[in-house]
Amino acid sequence: MIVKELSKSNNVLKMEALLRRTPNDYFRYEEMKEDLRKRLAGYNGERAISYYLDYLPDKDYFIFHDMRFPSGNHYFQIDYLVLSPHLALILECKNFYGTLFLEDSFNQLIRTANDKEEGFHNPLAQARWHQQQLSTFFSSHGYSQIPIDYLVAFSSPSTILKTNSRDPSILKKIVHGYNLLERLTEIERVYKNEVMDMKSMRKLSKLLLKSHVPGDQDILQKYGVAKSEVITGVQCPNCKALGMIRVRRKWFCEKCECYDSDAHIDAVKDYFFLLNSTISNKQFREFTHLTSVDMASKLLMRMNLPSSGANKGRVYHPH
Ligand SMILES: [Zn+2]
């Protein structure tokens, strides 16, 4: 059963909004684009892995995608957490192209692609670190009886994996997506004892969902973009130009001459992602370049957003 399904993280959505609304000659624009590309590659890797996880029998497995838990003053983030009656499995997904060499003595991962060598953190060390933190989390909530294991899954079948490690237990922890289910079955055989029945699995699921804290980066601050630099306007869903105008009860794009009824909805989402956690009628008009207070009210009301305050003080919140 998928308890928390795969979706783009808040921070990825924020980055997409930022790229839509930053001038492309901004001096950090290319860096932003590259960061988003890496994050999307990670997301696509996780999506490839979810294809295999979909085959797990619903009643025996609870699957959580992209969980982020507090740990002291910090957080730790797990790509997939798989609960079964026998154990909790941490699944770290890696989406790398090229040839990967897991170097044992310096504990690093070296990727060779297009004649270039690049070093990365050892994903096994990362998974072990998450295992430790999850174990502390479980203990503090009375679940110390649940064993925690981990796997690092490489999502691209074309990734070539090499290592100089002679430790067979390490090699068992790395898997290609297409071998994932087979390896999971092997792991289940190791953890024979049933440590949770359906009822405690449900109870633990609730706790996990309640403890999850979505990432919420101040993306403008991260890339040094001032609020005043964010490009306002409604974006044309067809040609992506910003600054649609209101004509005959619809949004009209002067560039590609297409109409759209709902283009302001994405603009409001961008506003929430980038500028503020609430929007007033005035802020909505400024952001969408509307002049009519009544029209702005109507469009905001129709979005059925939760609101607080009354009359001129009314502000709308995201769903
Ligand atoms: Zn257009």
Task: Evaluate the radius of gyration.
Answer: 24 Å
- Mean pLDDT over the full residue set: 93
**Sequence of secondary-structure elements:** EHHEEEEEEHEEHEHHHEEEHEHHEE
Shape summary: globular
Q: Taking strands numbered 1, 2, ... along the chain, how are they ordered across the largest sheet?
A: 1-2-3-4-8-10
Structural class: alpha/beta
Number of helices: 10
Sheet with the most strands, sense and barrel status? 6 strands, mixed
Q: How many strand units?
A: 16
Strand content: 15-25%
How much helix, percentage-wise, in residues? 25-40%
N- to C-terminal distance: 25 Å
Low-confidence stretches: none
Bound molecules: zinc ion
Describe this structure in words.
There is one protein chain. By secondary structure, the chain is α/β, with parallel strands linked by helices. Helix content is 37%, strand content 24%. It has helices at 10-20, 29-53, 123-140, 168-171, 180-190, 198-211, 219-222, 263-274, 281-288, 293-302; strands at 2-4, 62-71, 74-83, 88-94, 99-103, 108-113, 116-121, 148-154, 160-163, 174-176, 245-247, 250-252, 259-260, 279-280, 307-308, 315-316. The strands form 4 sheets. A 6-stranded mixed beta sheet has the order 1-2-3-4-8-10, sandwiched between helices. The protein has a 4-stranded mixed beta sheet with strand order 7-6-5-9. A 3-stranded antiparallel beta sheet has the order 11-12-13, with no helix packed on it. It is globular and about 70 Å long. 26% of the residues are buried. It binds zinc ion.
